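Morning - adenosine-5'-triphosphate inputs below, output right after.
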Amino acid sequence: MTGKGGNGMDVDGIPPAVLCEELRYRFGEHRAVDGVSLRVVPGEIFGLLGPNGAGKTTTIRVLTTLLPLQEGRAAVFGVDVARRRMEVRRLMGYVPQQLSANGALTGRENVSLFARLFDVPRRERRDRVAESLEVMGLTGDADRVAATYSGGMVRRLELAQALVNHPRLLILDEPTIGLDPLARSGVWERLNELRATTGMTVLVTTHSMDEADTMCDRVALMHLGRLRAIGTPAELKSALGEDATLEDVFRHHAGDALNDDRLPQGGFSEVRTTRRTAGRLG
Ligand SMILES: Nc1ncnc2c1ncn2[C@@H]1O[C@H](COP(=O)(O)OP(=O)(O)OP(=O)(O)O)[C@@H](O)[C@H]1O
């Protein structure tokens, strides 16, 4: 990681892909995000980890400008999230936890819709849509309605939708939730290829410590609105002991939060965790 200079710039003059400084967000009296500071280096896959209710989605929603910035500072490639919202939106692709594809449309129609929403110039749309579908391995299935796709294909379709904008930063909220191991590795394979070919920065939230360990360059462990640890998976594990897993690291910093029923999880999170993406489209 490069060193830190003044006004959020890294010393080599390149702004971080994501910068959060003392970010806070409250829902009424409840502090969902409580003083989060982090920087994501351009080109890395950065994992924001934590149990239900940790504040991951709220952090992401502030970064994507879907929630207003209440306190602190956030910037994407040096562009201030509070003051230059439209510019920030143009820099990023976002795949939320909620379904963002329409089962009644074909894969190609779904991606075309996003190309229009993102204002991709009309003469470039066809090629951009085809390119995004190709990158996500969906060319052969592009003209089938999405309701016939498997869960893994739906997730890759949602990634294709987010990519049609040629974003510099891709933000993914639980991209592999509800998918079987094969579909999970399919999604990660495509993300890795994408990063290798475009140098795109990826910010991903996940509950899965195993996935984060293998797939992320660096991770931040979040619990009850605060960051408890940040570093490469190897650094975090070796600081704890020779055979430590990332899950051990998490337990060290956050107790038994990974399966603590007393946490403010809410029924909806439970449903989200277990539902199958394909089923949602049927
Ligand atoms: N719209 C809302 N109104 C009130 N409280 C909310 C709202 N959205 C989230 N919260 C609360 O804020 C806290 C952080 O929620 P958030 O969704 O950011 O966590 P998370 O780490 O993304 O969890 P999950 O993995 O379940 O998505 C939780 O306690 C949650 O109940």
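Note: The beta strands are 18-27, 30-40, 45-49, 71-76, 79-80, 92-95, 169-173, 201-206, 218-223, 226-231.

O.
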